[in-house]
Specification:
With 497 residues, this protein is mainly alpha-helical. 75% of the residues lie in helices and 0% in strands. Among the domains are: 71 residues; 85 residues; 123 residues. The protein starts with a helix and ends in a 5-residue tail after the last helix. The mean pLDDT is 84.
């Protein structure tokens, strides 16, 4: 809950419950003070209080009261809540046989639902309209409905179906990318309709689908165009920006991220970064959401500056990311969905600046996260990058154990990640060479040269954008240039290595 939501709840939610309101206030305040919900700590804190014997019921009641307060708080700001409140009013009026008033609310709700393309709600409103017409025997109204509204019902159904299919398609691609990553071919179970997307939301889902397809095809141009289209459709329909400000900000952030792997987009990246910063400064509806999006902008900025080859600037941006992350954490905003991205970018930027101790610290921070199956593709890639600082710091025994563990994980869950297996096998050979008493540096160079040849033979050239740090590190060993310079040269060349 935002601070303003909490204030509203305590003023208007709990105060309505005069009897025993104190115990709910105490419980609410106690939970609010916790960074993470811990029931045992609450039971210990309130030991001796009468309500502790019925704690589960007290929790359930408090939750219901919070839900009621939030519905009231957002009753004029959320289009969905406004429309569902109208539906409740219609149901009450219909039950009271106040059909004229009922029809007036239906007409008012239909105007809002039409403007915001809430077609499933429009179908419900027409159902209520039919009920009113039938029971009131309004002959002219029934005739008008049959002449005009029946066709509209069919249009609403078509729009709902069209929107649902495009949504399901984007959801299918999301699952694939988050579960298996772009290296694995997808078998689609959702067939798109022959007609184009009909609604605002269907068009957005189509842009999202194209963006993810671009990622799977390693096509940065396609990702950028789809993300630009998503922002444009919002700006062509400003009432949707007002109704869905979070979605608009997310679209801007996605557009910013689409610039990240292309040197040609560096200029527009700075332009879009300034634009989204202005938008974030202008909105104050949800402090936690705004802070998380601001943190995401810093993550993307760090990602972009990691490719620019300017180490002093990268070090500044990396520190900015750390500061923003600390600030977000201190404010009590949990960011489990962003933790891995923060630490992953801190690790990558530390590797590029060749601060291997800091890279190892960030890698260990990632290992401490309880991510489960979230972003398995990124977890696997991060595990591989974590080998580099150990390699550079000469932690050969630990590195040997890490390689064995990563190979087992690859075999069990990521057998499609061929480049990962190549990298692990090469590091394994390097470890064996290092453990030989009379090893030569050139022996390791030969292994890394072969690794690069093998990697380029099985990896699409565009796909190298995602593996650019691996390639940059290998090139730094082969050319004796800095990792930053090698990454920049590869990026500037469009990964034509």
């Amino acid at each position: 809950m935002t601070p303003s939501e909490k204030r509203y709840f305590k003023r208007f939610g709990l105060l309505q419950q005069k009897k025993d309101s104190n115990k709910y206030t105490l419980l609410f305040d106690a939970i609010n003070e916790q960074n993470e919900y811990k029931e045992q700590a609450l039971l210990k804190q309130f030991k001796g209080y009468d309500f502790i014997n019925n704690f589960s019921e007290i929790k359930k009641y408090l939750f219901n009261q919070i839900q009621k307060a939030l519905r009231n708080y957002h009753s004029q700001s959320s289009i969905d809540i406004i429309l569902y409140n109208y539906l409740s009013d219609i149901s009450v009026l219909y039950g009271k046989e106040l059909y004229i008033e009922c029809s007036r609310i239906i007409k008012k709700a239909k105007k809002i639902a039409t403007k915001h393309e809430k077609f499933s709600i429009l179908l419900l409103l027409n159902e209520w309209k039919r009920n009113v017409l039938r029971i009131s025997h309004h002959v002219d109204g029934i005739q008008n409905y049959l002449d005009q509204e029946v066709i509209k019902d069919q249009e609403y159904i078509a729009c709902v179906e069209n929107e649902s299919i495009f949504f399901n398609k984007s959801l299918e691609l999301t699952l694939h990318l988050r579960k298996k990553g772009p290296d694995h071919k997808i078998t689609s179970g959702v067939k798109l309709p022959t007609e184009n997307p009909k609604t605002f939301r269907a068009k957005r889902y189509a842009f999202l689908q194209k963006s993810m397809e671009g990622y799977m095809e390693f096509d940065s141009e396609k990702i950028f165009e789809a993300s630009s289209g998503d922002v444009t459709i919002f700006e062509e329909n400003p009432h949707f920006i007002k109704a869905l400000p979070k979605q608009y900000i997310i679209s801007l952030t996605n557009l910013l991220d689409s610039c990240a792997n292309k040197i040609k987009y560096n200029d527009v990246f700075d332009e879009y970064m300034f634009k989204i910063t202005e938008v974030l400064d202008a909105y104050s509806f949800d402090a936690e959401f705004i802070e998380k999006e601001r943190l995401l902008v810093h993550i993307i900025k760090c990602k972009v500056y990691s490719l620019r080859g300017n180490l002093p600037n990268l070090k500044v941006v990396r520190q900015e990311l750390k500061n923003q992350y600390d600030l977000t954490s201190k404010k009590g905003y949990k960011t489990p969905d962003l933790d891995i991205y923060v630490h992953d970018n801190l690790m990558r930027s530390a590797l590029i600046t060749e601060d291997f101790s800091s890279a190892l610290e960030s890698y260990n921070d990632i290992l401490q996260l309880n991510l489960g199956s979230y972003r398995e593709d990124l977890q696997m890639e991060t595990r591989l990058l974590g080998l580099i600082p150990h390699f550079e710091l000469g932690n050969w025994l630990l590195l040997e154990s890490m390689v064995r563990s990563a190979l087992r994980l690859l075999q069990r869950k990521h057998s499609h990640f061929k480049l990962g297996k190549l990298f692990l096998e090469a590091i394994k050979k390097c470890i064996c060479i290092k453990q030989q008493p009379k090893h030569q540096t050139n022996d390791i160079i030969l292994v890394l040269k072969q690794l690069k040849v093998d990697a380029l033979s099985i990896t699409a050239k565009r796909r190298l954008a995602d593996y650019i740090l691996f390639i940059g590190w290998i090139d730094s060993k082969l050319t004796q240039n800095s990792i930053a310079q090698c990454v920049f040269e590869a990026t500037k060349a469009g990964y034509k290595l």
